[in-house]
């Protein structure tokens, strides 16, 4: 699948914008939300997603998140409410 001596981590270390996209899909943001947050067009975000999917050899966002975590590209999810949670905690 990958060239000898090549690691997916190298790919993301060389391209901070793609790393940002995978971090944001792991946060649960939609394509349009990612575009707004990174001040990119939705088409650029879609192109980045295609690159991420191709690089990780996956077909869905969920597969990309799981594989990125497995490869150490994403930290394990923290427990408890996150800043991106849209729910209001009970009082």
Any overview of this molecule?
There is one protein chain. The protein is mainly alpha-helical and 91 residues long. It has a domain at 8-70: Arc Repressor Mutant, subunit A. Helix content is 56%, strand content 0%. The protein is built from five helices and no strands. It has helices spanning 8-14, 16-26, 31-38, 42-56, 61-70. Helix 4 (42-56) packs across helix 5 (61-70). The longest helix has 15 residues, at 42-56. The chain is globular, with a radius of gyration of 14 Å.
Here the CATH topology of the domain at 8-70 equals Arc Repressor Mutant, subunit A
Q: For this structure, what is the CATH homologous superfamily of the domain at 8-70?
A: Winged helix-like DNA-binding domain superfamily/Winged helix DNA-binding domain
Number of strands: 0
Mean pLDDT: 79
Uncertain segments: none
Number of helices: 5
Class by helix and strand content? mainly alpha
Shape: globular
Q: What topology emerges from the helices and strands here?
A:
Elements: H1 8-14, H2 16-26, H3 31-38, H4 42-56, H5 61-70
Helix pairs in contact: 2-4, 3-4, 4-5
What distinguishing features does this structure have?
5 helices
């Amino acid at each position: 699948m990958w060239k000898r001596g090549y690691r997916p981590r190298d790919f993301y270390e060389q391209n901070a914008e793609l790393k940002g996209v995978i971090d944001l899909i792991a946060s649960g943001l939609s394509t349009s939300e990612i575009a707004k947050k990174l001040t990119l067009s939705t088409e650029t975000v879609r192109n980045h997603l295609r690159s991420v999917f191709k690089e990780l050899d996956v077909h869905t966002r969920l597969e990309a998140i799981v594989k990125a975590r497995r490869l150490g590209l994403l930290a394990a999810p923290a427990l408890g409410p996150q800043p991106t949670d849209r729910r209001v905690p009970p009082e």
